[in-house]
Design brief:
By secondary structure, the protein is of the alpha/beta class. The protein has 14 helices and 14 strands. β2, α3 and β3 form a beta-alpha-beta unit. Bound molecules: beta-D-glucopyranose.
Length: about 400
């Protein structure tokens, strides 16, 4: 497998060299990573200041470990293969994101890989890229309302939400009216809708038949008999339960929820937390409430801190989204694009304007039972990065 990736990368180097008019020597960069000097910039441009950058990558924020994992994979894969590349972070701002895209266009990128801060707002930035002849790959988050997205590389986000919901079902305390707390991601992120849709697809029958009782969303409660929700309906629910993907918002929302409910909504509870960062904040709040006897809480991303939480029994599960695969898939697409070949895709996502050809990657559920196998044996983390791992 590794061999296959390496030979593909070698071919990739040659194609990129040809496509940009660089010889292979020029394309072989020294892995000069400047990430330390500027909070939002990391580059691997072989020291060619102001020189050509072949692939530009824009990621949403450095403040969540998830995106640092992606940065690392891009720099490793592209750097090892000798691509000149630059990773820029938008730090939660669509305006910074647009400036980042403009900066990369001015450096001559041929392919832009972008994970949007706000899926709708990013359309303006990618339209500029398209007008400059740059091919656009939406990375992990779909960009909506524009035809300027050429491809989408993503995990199976519906499966992420469904796995979270199913975990809650499989690990629920017995009885009926089990309190269920729902939390979601940012309403500006298309994924937040898909994650929730996936979770709802499995949780809804249990809510409808009275096994679970929603503790913190009157909108979800009002829709409990509907198996399939429209985007607008999901939007209403997310309006109440959003964390904005922000640890602090998640924490205060969980605190406010626990203050608002009666004692019948405490005891043994279930918590749908959308990702690891928010899961840790929410778990800490539930753990410190003396009337909550036990909680089952979901997550996703397999962030190091959450893996430790899982080992310590403070978070119940996470979803492993192997950023090595997603970054490699994006690079493979870039190579095909630059070589004039149609990249391989296996699905498509409608972005409210066009059907964007997509390449999807499967996800893996991680619990205390398979954490070693999924994350250590696969080489994603070192066992020395954790304590108490058996
Ligand atoms: C990603 C998640 C991530 C979340 C917050 C989503 O779009 O798919 O992996 O946890 O954004 O950054």
């Amino acid at each position: 497998m590794k061999k296959k990736i390496l030979s593909f990368l070698l071919a990739a180097t040659m194609v990129m060299g040809l496509a940009t008019g660089c010889g292979s020597g020029a394309a072989t960069t020294g892995g000069d990573n400047n990430s330390g000097s500027d909070a939002s910039v990391a580059s691997n441009d072989g020291g060619a200041s102001g020189g050509d950058v072949q692939v530009g990558i824009v990621l949403p924020t450095k403040d969540e470990p998830r995106w640092l994992q992606d940065q690392k994979q891009f720099e490793t894969i592209l750097g090892d293969a000798g691509f000149t590349n630059q990773v820029l972070f938008s730090q939660g701002s669509s305006a910074t994101e647009k400036t980042n895209v403009e900066t990369l266009i001015s450096k001559g990128i041929k392919v832009l890989v972008i994970c949007a801060q706000d899926g709708a707002a990013a359309s303006a930035a990618v339209e500029e890229a398209k007008n400059a002849g740059v091919k656009v790959i939406a990375y992990d988050r779909l960009i909506t309302g524009t035809d300027a997205v050429d491809y989408y590389v993503t995990f199976d986000s519906f499966a992420v939400g469904a796995a979270q919901g199913q975990y809650l079902i499989d690990n629920a305390p017995s009885g009926s009216n089990v309190p269920l707390y729902l939390f979601a991601g940012a309403a500006t992120d298309n994924n937040a809708f898909i994650f929730f849709e996936g979770a709802w697809s499995v949780l809804q029958p249990k809510i409808a038949d009275g096994t679970f009782k929603i503790a913190n969303s009157s909108e979800a409660e009002a829709l409990k008999d509907k198996a399939e929700l429209s985007r607008e309906e999901i939007g209403k629910i997310i309006g109440q339960i959003t964390t904005d993907w922000d640890f602090n918002v998640a924490k205060s929302k969980a605190e406010a929820n626990l203050t608002a409910v009666g004692s019948d909504m405490k005891g043994d509870v279930l918590v749908l937390a959308p990702n690891d960062g928010t899961a840790r904040s929410i778990a800490d709040v539930f753990a410190s409430d003396k009337d909550v006897s036990s909680y089952v809480v979901t997550g996703q991303d397999s962030e190091k801190a959450s893996v430790q939480y899982i080992i310590d029994g403070k978070q119940s599960m996470t979803v492993f989204k192997d950023t090595r695969t997603l970054a490699a898939d994006s690079v493979a697409m870039a190579v095909d694009i630059l070589g004039g070949k149609e990249p391989a895709t296996d699905s498509s996502y409608n972005n409210e304007k066009i059907d964007v050809p997509a390449k999807q990657t499967a996800i893996v559920v991680v619990t205390k039972d398979n954490v070693k196998e999924a994350l250590i044996d696969s080489g994603y983390y070192e066992s020395s990065e954790f304590t108490g791992l058996k």
